[in-house]
Structure formats: structure tokens, C-alpha cells
Amino acid sequence: MSIAVRLPDDSLRQLPEGATGTDLAAGIGPRLLEAALAIKQDGQLTDLKAPLRDGAKIEILTAKNEDSLELIRHSTAHLLAHAVKRLYPNARVGIGPTIEDGFYYDFWVEKPFTPEDLPVIEAEMKKIVAEGIEVVREDLDRDAAIARFNEMGEPLKVEVVSGIPQGDRISGYRQGDFYDLCRGPHIPNTNKLKAFKLLSIAGAYWKGDEKNQMLSRIYGTAFHSQRDLDEHLQRLEEAKQRDHRKLGKELDLFSFHPQAPASPFFHPKGTVVYNALVDYIRELYNKYDYKEVITPQILDVSLWKTSGHYDNYAENMYFTTAEEREYAVKPMNCPGHCVLFGSTKHSYRDLPLRIADFGRLHRYERSGVTHGLTRVRTFCQDDAHLFCAPDQIKAEMASFLDLLKEVYDTFAFTEMRVALSTRPEKRLGSDEIWDAAEGALAEALTEAGVPFKLNPGEGAFYGPKIEFQVLDALKRPWQLGTLQVDYMLPERFDLNYTKPDGTEGRPVMLHRAILGSLERFFGILVEHCAGAFPAWLAPVQVAVLPITDRVAPFAEEVGAKLRAAGFRVDLDLRNEKVNAKIREHQLRKVPYMLVLGDREAEAGSVSVRHRTQGDLGVQTLEAFLASFQAEVAERRR
RNA sequence: GCCAACUUAGCUCAGCUGGUAGAGCAGCUGAUUCGUAAUCAGCAGGUCGCAGGUUCGAAUCCUGUAGUUGGCUCCA
User: Fold this and answer.
1) Which superfamily, per CATH, for A542-633?
2) Which residues numbered 214-243 in chain A sit less than 7 A from strand B, measured from CB?
3) What stretches in chain A show pLDDT beneath 50?
4) What's the pLDDT tens digit per position in A596-619?
5) Would you name the residues of A annotated as active-site residues?
6) pTM over 0.95
7) How high is the ipTM of this complex?
8) What phi and psi, each to the nearest 5 degrees, are found at residue A335?
9) Could you tell me if A61 and A98 are in contact, meaning their C-beta atoms sit under 8 angstroms apart?
């Protein structure tokens, strides 16, 4: 008996029955056999050593295939566990999945691992690779697996297997003296693992539940080649160089102090950027017909009880008391806006009413979760609430999309990912209302030609939401914008508007933000542009650098003219060589430097140097002013 | 909040197994007036996060505490 399988080039190959991927690869050629990592049978990933099915379409995976990278990482996770078990026989293994960019493995150990342990473990892993141990699949039925893991003293594995229905078979893999529960597939031999690195250690709750015990997790990554690994490590290094916390300090943008944990102090330079962001959004609010308001910081608890925050959000709120009356510092603007909306009578002609607010918010965050500017305890959002009639949702969504695209384009966030989260199990409102809301959002996205992903059941209980993600210069995703449909707050605050027929209607509220938190956006932007802000945002836009004291008066004149034209100027009159001045302003990423010597003073011209383009030559001050003015006015990237 | 690590001059960092603090840059002073990424010299600057403890003696060891960092849980 023999079987036939079809290769990707559509050719048929006859093999004896029971033949495996290894046999197939060997039959084709020794180099393929050497490179083969796994096979795909009719699109399904399996071990190289799995028996081939008659008539199946077979693809042999090598390092060239995308899918095989995950395979490598998964097998490296096993390799890690194998090494740990050799070095620390008392360690109990948890789970070891692949993640984006690598893998991790959790261990239950008496004493958590330390960074010094990593090189030792890594060396042991390399030893196991050098030993070239075969990786073989050994399936067991559930009860046998429980017995085996009990015998091995692996309670966590027993727990995992116990979750599998009785009678099912579980798959496992053995490499030498190490056996692990695993769905597979895996590479055929440990010697296929050539490039890996252990990166860090962290505590992690068993099954991600903080009520469970804390395990010691080791993170690592693996690639097909040392070159790919090096490249990845270099990307990590690049990310470190761009870290907004590092750049924030170096560029004198902001700082943090123990007196106000997780709450940024923006320095003059950072404040310039921050305000420029707000000014920009404000300008668009005019264009898109929003009304900006300023609302109180501290409001009576009764308001938060009405809004539902008191019951659902209290652990993130700050409270305060005065004259025996209890207040809360606002964590969100929406209840205040509801107060505003409800304070006067509204006609359908008033809708949509777009209320914007840059109010400062305070949210208590648990101490371990804060991070630089991206997760803070006080921030403000480019927040607005659109009060509209139910049939206006779609149009509002469409207009918001335009606004959003305009903004992201300005900041050179060229890639956007959109997700629509729909009704969850537990929700407010009738199915008809949800149908209409979800439909309106989806339609608006479709009509705008915006592709989106559906997250069924992920919506808020008060309405569906859309989340907008951008990719930064290092291709890292960040969620910035959001639009949430809310039926609950108008209900809770009993908001009404008079419809054309004279009856009262309930408005819908759309919560929306473009940049999200300004603090967070600031941090992301710093990393996105590596601290080199576009000219319109740069804290110092032009540095004026006289070469000698003789031209100081001329430099002051140039500086004054630039300032009069509305620019942020650093007039550098220090007794330093031009080279030193240039170097310093270059390191501070100042977009333009004007080098002024006797020649310029004589001719009334300026010698322009751009931070990336270098020496642009001499021009008249007027010419420079005009072109620079245009660059700033257009908010060129 | 949980696990782990870190905290030395304004910044970046040295300081081996405990013997009482050091560099570069920044700052200040002086000299130099020098055309596209660092001019030279001098001076000054720290109760080694904070509070206890061990010790003849602590930046170094122990305990507690604060902040930060990497994760977990949570989240803009």
C-alpha cells in the first residue's frame, strides 16, 4: 500500500503508507531535510514526524515560512523549561506560550529567579541544543496524563490537564528527560534552535488571577538566525533610546516628583508643546463646530451617584470633604456636561450639540500600574460629548472620522487600525436601539472606506464603541481615539429635547476623543518623532548663533524680529565657539539654526542650518521668515 | 495592590568581599572672539532616597518605608 501527497507545485509524490514529513523531506533532498521544521497538511500545521494523510496537500515549512517563527519560539519556550528543570529540579512548570516578539514560561519556584540566573539558564539551553535531542510527540489519555504529571510532581500541569474533558487524549512532547503537556507542533530536534535570548524576569499570577499564587516568569525571544535576533535586539535598543521618559529628561520637557506620584510636572519647554497640541485641537473644534466649556474640578458626590461612577468607579476616584459635604474630584467630564445640557431646555434644532472640555481629570491608579506619561494619575483629554438625536449618530460618526484622519495625518500617524466593539451580554437598552447604534457606526465606517475589526461582546454596557489605534514610527500600536455611544447617562440625568412634533425625546450621547489623554499622547508623540518635534511644535523653533561678540547686536535684532513674528527663539549669546553652539542645539533637536557672522551682519542676511538637512546656505532674513512661517502655519510634519 | 530589581553631585555613572565618596558633562569664575556637532584653565557642588538596626566602624549587611523600573492584575 502506498499513499500519494500533493506538493505546493502541484506535483504528486508516492510514499509508503505511514510515511512521515521527515520521509517526504528526505525523499526530496538532504538540504530540505536539514532545513525542514514542520509540515502543513491541507493547511494544518503538524509535526514533521507526523504521518502523512493520503491525498493531502503538503507544505514543508522551513525558516522561510512566516508560521515557522512561532514554532521556533514555542519550541524555545520548551527548551527554556527543559533547562530550568535541569538546573532547578524543584521548579514546577506552569505554562509557556508564544507572545508577540517572543515567548515566556512561568515557573513555580521557592525563590524567584534573578537576572543573574538568566545567563546560566541560557547556557544550559545552548547545551541542550548542542546535544541535539530529538523532540517526540507522546500522546496520553487524560487520566494517564494526570497520573504522569502527578508522578512528575507537577501540580500546575495536573490542574491544566484536569480542565480537559475526561476521555480526551492530550498531546505532549518529550525531549530527553523532559516531558511537557503541549498541543504542538514542535520542531523535530533541539538542534534546530539557533538564535534565542532570555530577556527579563517578572512575577505573574497563575492563570492571570491575582487571587492565585505568584509565579516567576521568564521572558525570551527566538529567531531563525542570529542576524534576525540581533536586529530585534537593536529595535529594542532603539525603543529604549526613544523612551519618552529618557527624552523628557534630556530635552527638559517634564519631570516626576515623589510629592505627587505619577503626576507629571511639565517644564516650560514641555508646556509649549502641550499647549500647541491643545491649540491645534481647539482650532479644529472651530472648524468642526464644537463648543468648548470649562467645568468644575470638584463636584458633589450626589452627581457621581446619579452618573453611576460612585457605584462603579469609586476605587479610581479621589474624594474630599468640606463643611461636612462630600465631594469627588472629577475622573471624567461627562457628568458635568450632562448637568450643563440638562440645565436648559433644548430643541431638536440645537442638536447635535458638541461640548468639548480640556478639563483636568484625576484618577487614582494602583501604584504598580503607572508608567511615565502613558499612565498617570492626572491628565486631560481632548474630550467632547456629542448630544444628538438617535438618527444623527451616523452623520456624527462620519464627521468625527474626518476630524480624526485630519489629526492623525498631521502627526504622521499613517497607519490606523479600527475596532468596533458590539453589545455585551450584560447591557442596557433594547435590541432595536443596539441594532441601530451598531449599524450606524458600522455603516459610517464602511462608507468612509475605513476597514475595521469586530470585537463582538466587547462593547460597554451602555453602548457600542469604536477604538482607533495608530502605529508609531517603530510600528508599535497605540490606542488613541475612541467613540462610544451612550444611552445610559442621558437616561440617568433625564436629559430631553423637544422633537419637531412637540413631544420630548431622549438624546444620545457620544463620548469621543482623538488624542485621548494629552499626557499619554505627548509621551507617544515624543517616541514617535524621537524628540525631534516638527517645527510647529518644537519648544525652541530657531536658535540664533552669533559667531563673535561683534555681531551680537545684529543677532539680537534678528532674534527680536523672529520673536515679533511669533516664533520661539533661543538667542545664544554665550561666549562659545559656533561648533559648540551648533552641537548643543542639534542635541536639543532645534529645527533651525541661524549662524551669524560679520558677512551676515554686513549684508543683513542669515546663514541657515537645518537640524537634519544641515547647512542650507545664506538667505535674506525675510526669505527665511517667509518659508519658515509657511512651514509652521501648515504644520508641516 | 502583587512579584522582582533599582535609588550615590543638576545629568550620566564609578565606588571589589563593611574602613568613612570619585569621574565626565552641566554650573560658576577667568582667559579666548574662534565660520556649521564639544576652546582652555580654575572653583564650587553629595547628611550616598528616607527611618531604624547590626558593627569599633555602614554608600556597602539586615528590617521597614517612599519613589521609580520590568512584569502580573487593571486601564486613557
Assistant:
1) Anticodon-binding domain (3.40.50.800)
2) 214, 216-217, 219
3) none
4) 999 999 999 999 999 999 999 999
5) 334, 363, 381, 383, 385, 465, 511
6) no
7) 0.94
8) -60, -40
9) no
